[in-house]
Amino acid sequence: PNRGLISNLPEGCCVEVPVDVDASGLHPHTIGALPPQLAALIQTNVNVQSLTVEAALTGKREHVYHAAMLDPHTAAELDLDQIWALVDDLLEAHHGWIPESLRVG
Fold it and tell me: Which residue has the higher pLDDT, 63 or 104?
C-alpha cells in the first residue's frame, strides 16, 4: 500500500514502485509526486477500487454498479443499461467468491 511512496496519491491505495530485497526484507523506493496528469489518471482507478472495496465491506451492491459506471474503460464502451447488465452477469458468475450481500437474486 501507498505509505507516502507516491505523495500525490491517497495513503493506503495500492501502488507499484521499485523495491529492493535483501535478507532483512522488502524496501520500497519513495517516488514522490507523479506528474499531475498521471496522478489524475491513476486516481480514477483508485476511486473505482475504493468503491468496490466499500461494497464488499458494507454489502451495498449499488457501490459495485457505481464503480463500474465510473470506470473509464467501461464507460467508454457501454451505456448505463449495458453496464448494469454486465455487473449483474459478473456478480452472478462469481457468486461463490463474493459476499452474500452482493449476490444477485
Answer: 63
